Amino acid sequence: MKIDRRQFFKVAGWGAAAGVTAMNVVGRFGSGGRAQAFESMETPETVKAKQFAMVVDMSKFKTKDDIQKVIYACHHTHNVPNWGNPKDEVKWIWTDTYKHVFPGQESPFLDEAFKEMPFLVMCNHCDHPACTRVCPTKATFKRPDGIVMMDYHRCIGCRFCMAACPFGARSFNWRDPRLALNMNDLNMEYPTRTKGVVEKCTFCDERIAQGKQPACVEAAPAGGLVFGDIDDPNSDVRKALARTYTIRRKPELGTGPNIYYVIGGGETNAG
Amino acid sequence: MLDKALTGSKLYWAWVLFLLVLVGIGTAAYIKQFNYGLGITGMSRDVSWGFYIAQFTFLVGVAASAVMLVIPYYLHNYKTFGRIVILGEFLAVSAVTMCILFIFVDMGQPMRIMNVVLHPRPNSVMFWDSLVLSGYLALNLLIGWANLHAEKMGVPHPSWTKPLTYLSVPWAVSIHTVTAFLYAGLPGRAFWLSAVMAARFLASAFAAGPALLLLLALLVRKITRFDAGKEAIQTLGKIVTYAMFVNVFLLGLEFFTAFYSHIPEHMASFKYLYMGLDGHNKLVPLMWTSSVLAVVSMSMLVFPQIRRKEKLLAVACVATFISLWIDKGFGLVIGGFIPSPMDHVTEYWPTGIELLITMGVYAAGILVLTVLYKVAISVKVANEYPAPLKGAVEEAH
Amino acid sequence: MAKEMKPNEIIQSINYTPPAKPWMELPVEIKPGMFCWGAKAKSLNILGLPNARDWNPSHEDWKLPENWKDTVLEGMADRLKKYRSFKLFMDICVRCGACADKCHFFLGSGDPKNMPVLRAELMRSVYRRYFTTPGKLLGKLGGARDLDINVLKEWWYYFFQCTECRRCSVFCPYGIDTAEITIMGREMLNLLGLNIEWIAGPASACYMKGNHLGLEPHTIKSNVEFMLDDIETVTGIKIDPPFNKKGADILFVTPSGDLFADPGTYTCMGYLMLFHELGLNYTWSTYASEGGNFGFFTSNETAKRLNYKIYAEAKRLGVKWILGGECGHMWRVLNQYMDTWNGPADFLEVPRSPITGTVFENAKGTKMVHIAEFTADLIRHGKLKLDPSRNDDLVVTYHDSCNTARGMGILEEPRYIIRNICNNFYEMPEDTIREKTFCCGSGSGLNAGEDMDLRMKGGLARANAVRYVQQRYGVNMLANICAIDRAALTTSMNYWCPGVGVTGVHEMVANALVMKGEKPRETNLRGEPLPAKGGEGNV
Amino acid sequence: MYNGGKIIIGLAIFLGIATLPFFSNIGTAVKRPEPSLDTPVIKEVQAQLGRKDVCVEPKAFMQANHMRLLNEWRDSALRQNKRLYISSDGRKFTISLQNTCMHCHSNKKEFCDRCHNYMAVKPYCWDCHIAPKERGGQS
Amino acid sequence: MSAFVSFAAVVALVLLAILGVKGAGLTGLFGVAIPYAALAIFIVGFLARIVKWGRVPVPFRIPTTCGQQKSLPWIKQNKIENPSGTLGVLARMFLEVFFFRSLFRNLKGELREGPKIAYGSDKWLWMAGLAFHWTFLIILIRHLRFFIFNVPPAVGLVERLDSFLQIGAPLLYITDVVFLAAVLFLLIRRFYIPQVKYISLAADYFPLFLILGIGCSGVLMRYFLKVNVVGVKNLTMGLATFNPVVPQGLGTIFYVHLFLISVLFAYFPFSKLMHSGGVFLSPTRNLSNNSRIVRHINPWNYPVHVHTYEEYENDFREKMKAAGIPVEKE
Description:
The structure holds five protein chains of five kinds.
Chain A (H helix, E strand, L loop, with lengths): L4 H4 L7 H11 L12 E3 L10 E6 L6 H14 L15 E5 H4 L10 H5 L1 E5 L7 H5 L5 E3 L5 E3 L9 H5 L6 E2 L25 E2 L5 H4 L6 H5 L5 E5 L6 H8 L2 E2 L11 E4 L9
Parallel strand pairs in A: 2-11
Antiparallel strand pairs in A: 2-9, 3-4, 5-6, 7-8, 10-11
Chain B lengths: L9 H27 L14 H14 L2 H9 L9 H22 L8 H4 L6 H29 L7 H24 L12 H27 L6 H32 L2 H11 L9 H18 L2 H5 L1 H28 L14 H33 L7 H4 L2
Helix pairs in contact in B: 1-14, 2-4, 2-7, 2-8, 2-13, 3-7, 4-6, 4-14, 6-7, 6-14, 7-8, 8-9, 8-13, 9-10, 9-13, 10-13, 11-13
Chain C lengths: L6 H7 L27 H7 L20 H15 L1 H8 L12 H6 L6 H16 L1 H6 L10 H11 L7 H5 L6 H13 L6 H13 L7 H19 L14 E4 L3 H4 L3 H15 L3 E3 L15 H18 L3 E4 L4 H8 L1 H5 L25 E3 H10 L15 E4 L2 H5 L5 H10 L30 H22 L3 E4 L2 H14 L4 E4 H8 L27
Parallel strand pairs in C: 1-2, 1-3, 3-4, 5-6, 6-7
């Protein structure tokens, strides 16, 4: 039997060395009966990538409903509470106008319709995320596949990540989220959060592990949201990027956002 | 020595009791916040840090200011500060205690606070801040207590405090530098993204801290037999003067950079703070109060004739302190969040519960300060005035 | 007598680190200068104490009875049934060591067996061996040992190196009082005639003649008359104090040391002058002419026998209440033992100051008032005309006697008096005064001449604190309210901090007291010129 | 006894405290909790495997170590993205409290709560994780 | 030497439990019989010891007075350190028992050049003592959850506060850490401080090693080795309801823990640990200093030989007359 107790005895840091030694000596006196190996692996169906990215093409969203569907898909899948007020608000994906999504890039002569047009915004899963850099507990971290992940078990609620994120992508549970959830209409396969932790879009890490696309992508009109590995030249994302001119939010900050926006809707011949 | 804090006049006990009541109220308010969540405060998704973190930031400065006594005394052998260096060290202990408490009450999940130690991320500034703050607390408590203990015993300061004292000098600078880095290293927060942030922090700290210390020294002289000495107080006044001017100078640099360059996001927060933005102007009166007080204090401090009059000096120090408290304990942190990275303006104002908790933390800090000062002053006074101590006879009346 | 150690020799000999050898294996060494002569047959016979014979502690043979071991063990068993303190203190010590450096003998000698805990262990080890099951079973491992002649000698040596000052008891988390253990130890030793002459002699004198010094009635009177002459020289006032006067209101009892030698006699003159000035209807007694009680350092029974005289004399003379002079262990006994032994004093009245009308409620049982309480009350009510400047040549510090501090708690009264009679008063470091005060080093009957090394070692801690204020504030006078202190500290001050005199509080009172009809004073009671009037004091 | 009154009061208090457990249980029916394994899914798996002990690890191990296993699981899934657990008998399970554990143990009240209540343990799992819907509504 | 013997004794006890349970399978003995016996010894022994002390009279009022006595009305009495009434004594005892008032006073005397004896406050023993006793108490209270079926809310509250910091699973108790640290400190100071080392007996080391063993086995059991805790409560509830059961497969570490506790309980009444009861009876602390106000009776007071005035006057009558001192018989 494989003995990999290091995993098991990683308790609390204190006394670890003494503890482990002692346990190796008297290891057989617990009532577990036998030493237990802990072995786990990635699910084979996990979607693999070096850096996940998404292309948002708002022109594919013809109606408000198209957008609402996406937001609902995400928020319902992840039991995101709906507080109905901006103070307690928690949101993973939402819309805002051009001026706010791309501040500083608006021009006074922008088309009125364009001014009012909603853009879907979410976590950018940056190449160099400021949020993970500042998190004092590694509660948020960048996975090898590029997802900026949240560990709700570890988050201490210091909200440094919120101050650091230049995109306002992070939400804090100012109150017990269950008070703002319809407890009869929960996604029973996904947890809620507890009060006092930060949350945000995780590119549906739990769905990726099942070989699925993120919930928003599935709910979006065809081509509205394109998801894939930006490192893979043959991925849908790369194809979409090759097709058209896209911009990112605040690239000048150097965080390397991985959400690309198709502005203007029409396909252009880039280059 | 701790027993010194357990004997005192009726006034002392009334004061301690008063503080305990405030701590009790603050605790009750905190329990309410703990059960409800931080939503009970005025903070929101856009302004995600508020009064607590602002107070923390301000108090780090107060703590760091002890170094303004330590440097002249230990590094330059400036004996005049020998009598009050302990007051500076204990003020630092109290201030850091409050810092830690403010961080604690600001946590969404305070029971996981040990995660910072158990799962440290060394490139997080907050990790370093927790290290330097607790280190600074330990240093000051250790040095202050050990030296005081030696004084009580009537023996020379233990030699091991010497290297620790030297260590405490860069350490003091580091606590405020690291705290400044909490802000100065964030992309997308133009208001904070400034190279002079740490310098500004230190300058304001070295004005506000010594100003408070000066006021405390005057207060201590009034209610106890311990006198810090005229010269020490004057020197402190000078330190406040220089630091205040440097501070305002650095603030001026920020203004220049923002407004001469005319980059919108660099100007936005300043506009919000001093003029209001998109019709939002909750902080404008406060910021102008701060500015006016800064001007008042500087125009008083700059004249040695005024400074030499202790009453006026005290007034100037009060002005300095309040000005900087508003600037750093409010404007600097809140201002950084307004407008939000998506250019929305969400205003912030602390709620009642938030203020009660803040009051509780301040009361706890002042309690720590009271106890430490009581011990220190009792020891010093007993050393200096062994003559007829007030006995039980007088106390009974 | 051994060559006395010089101060620096004592200092150099101090080493607080115990030897490598376990204490049970370290045989006792009876060192000259560290012990007092054995009790003489004569003294023990007068008191009717057992095994009276002349013996020398430094000789191998202590002339003990055959069955000495049984006597001790029976004595121990008896006392374990009589004193809860003894039984409890044998059982509950956890050896935390908090008491170790609280003992002046340990501080001054470094002898580990002078740590209170170890002093008690000397007896506990025997207690365990004979009175507890684990001790019987485990022997040495259980901290138990046989009682043999060496152990007995060790007991004698170390129980007469404890002044029963109770300082250790202040710091003990369970209040274990080594004095109680020493008292029991000395009782058991006394069953074998193992007393010291410096205790047995005075005790027997006190028994027969009424006071430790063996002053006979006429001598007492003539001694007092000498003082009266001196008083007249200084003040021009002639005093005629009453002796054994029936129908007096108050019986005054003070330690006989005050009648005999400087500087106690000055204190005594202070009493005389004060009482005269007040016109007090009081009396001295030649029969109850001793406040102190060396019986207390012998055995409970002896102490009770000596103490008997005070109430008996009060009854005989028909006084209303009793006033007690300045003394240490005298007050421990009067406060904690007298009423239990020889009370109830229902033939007396609750003490009431005839001058101020103050009723001393705190003495309504024993009917005995401390003179510091009495005088403080007078000053409080403005009944004394005082000129503190007459004491301006003195820079005073005050020494709390162990017994009045830790066995009574009379701390503020003398300080209040001192603050009103002199202008230069400095406290010693706070860890050496009040309940933390240090013994003079010669208490509990150890102020003999032959154990000078012991006394000076034991006096180091006290003297060191005096030296601190001497160097810092120029203190030149150590005030106290204890006759033993006045004798012992004089020696100790000369040894450790020359230049510091010793005085009773009431000597200073008398010097400051402006008496009706007195002539302008030129000298103090000691005949030294008074400080120049109106001149700058040496503050 | 001397000062007998006070001593006896003291001893009575001591005796009361020392024997508190014995008295406090008088009149309460104490029974060892038996977590129920009576759910359709467990039944099915038991039938499938032809044995009673079908959890991810043997019963004895789970009784003593389930909290540690869950702790490891959450780190594995969330932090390492390893969401497949290989049990000591080689079976594979998706690492998920809500979707794997509670899929079988859909009777939280008869399973988890019985022992937890007995031991007066209140794990904070359910602050976030949603308990399965059971008879008697939400937990 | 005595430290080594004590350590060896505790190791032997651990081995005994291991051999007894794992080797000989004597779970009934170690799980039921010994604990019951130990508790019985503890209770009976404790009571007997106190009664034994109680039967010894307190002939004299000998409080150690640590403050100003009750005196003239304008002098402020220290009513706690020098009590003259019951209330003061209660306050004094309360401070002593719950906050170790006397130890709080602790000083350290040092001989310095000069010569000068300098006194510094030394609160380490006080702090470690407080930490040790208080955490021990909290741990005991926490353990009530194993002995009471419907765990009282107060016990739950204590437990929740103790495990406030969410560290590990099961949650780490803060008191466990403090307790072990305090015991270690108390043990180490016995080796490190020369005077304390010199006075230490096996009876001092043994309980410390034993308690350390209990703490370590408990910590090992809860955090590292793991046992079926429901089974444990099954056993403990069986004990508490006089309906003993010995569940299978509890894990030897549990029996080690239980056995060491049993030993501690059984050892308690015969050891210095009785200071817990003894402190209440200490005459230097639990008496008021009112012996000048109220007469205290010594139950075994007996008449003694005295030298009466008559005898005295007979000895000195002539001398007294010559000196003009009045006499009874001319």
